[in-house]
Amino acid sequence: MRTSYHSVHEPICGICGKRSRSFESLREHLIGPLPKAECERVFRERGCDLCLNIFGSRNALRVHRDTCQLSYGYNAVLNRFANLGIQDDLRIDNGKSRAVALACKMVGGGSDGSLDLCAKICIVDEYENILFRSYVKPYLPVTHYRYETTGIRPEYLRDAMPLRQVQRKIQDFLCNGEPMWKIRPRGGKARILVGHGLDHDLKCMELEYPAIKLRQAS
After folding, report:
1. Contact, 136 vs 176, CB < 8 A?
2. Rounded to the nearest 5°, which phi and psi values hold at 214?
3. In 66-128, which ranges are continuous DSSP H helix?
4. pLDDT per residue over 56-81, tens digit each?
5. In 3D, which of 141, 127, 139 has the Cα closest to residue 206?
6. pLDDT digits (tens, 9 = 90+) for 143-169
7. Contact partners, residue 15, CB within 8 Å, separation at least 6
8. What is the pTM of this model?
9. What radius of gyration do the chain's Cα atoms show?
10. Per DSSP, what are the bridge partners of residue 47?
11. 109: which strand partners?
């Protein structure tokens, strides 16, 4: 019998607990051409047709709809970006973010899949607001997507932002208009970068940034 592997990143039905490969697969499970009857019935009563979450009562659903983060106001391009997990609010100095945190997800390259290749990046500010989030297309072929831990599939990287483009975008944001050679420990406009295993992440991104501006999180 074939073993089915699931990732914690997969969307899950709030009624029966079934995991789906994608957000659209979950939508089909709930309200598609051939939905599961009980799940469809409950979802019609207490489910948000935007985020597909299930609520304890119709009143709770009404309250949620006023604040649901997914709204009909997005245009087609932003909807596509949302589906790809892309968010880009990086700006050269607006004076708000003096320190930011970086996190990466790695897929595998090389003949045995052991070579770490950066495939997804997220940057947040000190208030945990997401400033940048994107899949990244590695410069080497991916031989192991490490799906059980990354939740990344081949189709997510097919039209992803190339690594070189991501490098330039992030480096410009971190330097914040200040030349690399002028960056100093205190003062200046360059941002402090915080993260776990920053040396490794920056190496995989092939991104240079002065060590005096790096802060390793414990």
Report:
1. no
2. -100, 140
3. 76-84
4. 888 888 888 777 655 444 344 334 44
5. 139
6. 999 888 888 888 889 888 899 999 999
7. 38, 39, 42, 43, 54
8. 0.61
9. 20
10. 54
11. 115, 142
